[in-house]
Amino acid sequence: MGTLLLDPIAFSIGGLKVHWYGLILGSAALIGLLLAVWEGKRFRIPQEFFMDLLLLGVPSAIIAARIYYVAFMWDDYKNNFWDVFKIWNGGIAIYGALIGAIICAVIFVRRRGYNFWRIADICAPSLIIGQMIGRWGNFVNQEAYGGPTTESFLRENLHLPSFIVNQMNVQGTFHHPTFLYESLWNLVGLILLMVLRRQKFLRSGELFASYFIWYSIGRFFIEALRTDSLAFQGAAWLASFVNGLWSPMTWLGFEQGYLAPSYGNVRISQLLAIGIVIAAIIFIIVRRRTVRDLPYYSDPITSTKVVAAEALPGTAEAAEPEKAESVKPAETTVEELPEVPEEKKE
């Protein structure tokens, strides 16, 4: 059976080619925005706040993701500098995107007077649903796939539809659909976050930390299946340690994707995933023990800028006349009443 590859170009407008990759990433951002706005209404946060955050956060995430990727793949770009800007061909790193988005969010949220951790909790489900959808951009571009496998494994063991199986046929060799593994992992994570945020015990910042824990665990195990991982040459004990943690995957019949020894022996995303999980757990424990009156997730969220504006004397004085005018009693008129005859004296 021949390979049926999807056209990465969705449509063209004149000479402008619109790629599926961009449309999928745009859809992911939009759905993430709607999810944040919906949850923000519970805390009376205006939707314009999240729209502004998206307009600033998405470009910051894309730029940081590209810089992160190019920095580790500089040898592929140093002689073709203009290729650095061709992000529609793929080549952005999610951890880089998270770094850029978080830096932007910290600055923006604080300038608006909100607590960063409270807003980060609201946005956590938006992040994971964005990643869940965005991975399908890798599918269309036929990138970020895993090591070689068999067509029978994809069809009979995983029961995947033909359009996925065919797209995983790269130059005559079938590969693991790691994009699909991560997308499904994020779907489960989304459900868990949605349930977790309604629990009464959840404190500020813990939903955001839980997102990182869940995503990083999945990324650690899925990353080793890939053949295009960013890597570096680390100590032998470090490589053995990482491989030992991943070894349970072999019980399920999986094998690590090929990584050229000359390129590196430690996958950067796996090492980052381990560090993030440890850091997130420590973050939750330390804050619970050291921060007094740590707010719960369900507690009200207020902006210090709004509170300060309402406390200004001029604001209060200006509001008084309007209030007085709105409650001004209606004028009443007394009509002449018919004269009542005096009672007769006896």
Task: Give an overview in words.
Strand 3 and strand 4 form a beta hairpin. This protein is 57% helix and 5% strand. Helix 1 runs antiparallel to helix 4, helix 2 runs antiparallel to helix 3 and helix 3 packs antiparallel against helix 4. The strands form three sheets. A two-stranded antiparallel sheet has the order 1-2. Strands 3-4 form a two-stranded antiparallel sheet. A two-stranded antiparallel ribbon has the order 5-6. It contains twelve helices and six strands. The protein starts with 8 loop residues before the first strand and ends in a 20-residue tail after the last helix. By secondary structure, the chain is mainly alpha-helical.
Structure characteristics:
two-stranded antiparallel ribbon; globular; disordered C terminus; 57% helix; two-stranded antiparallel sheet; 12 helices; mainly alpha; 346 residues
Number of helices: 12
| Contiguous uncertain segments of 5+ residues | 322-337, 342-346
Provide the helix percentage.
55-70%
Based on secondary structure, the structural category is: mainly alpha
Termini gap? 123 Å
Strand content: under 5%
Please describe the biggest sheet, giving its number of strands, its sense, and whether it closes into a barrel.
2 strands, antiparallel
Shape: globular
Kindly provide the radius of gyration, computed on alpha-carbon positions and rounded to a whole number of angstroms: 29 Å
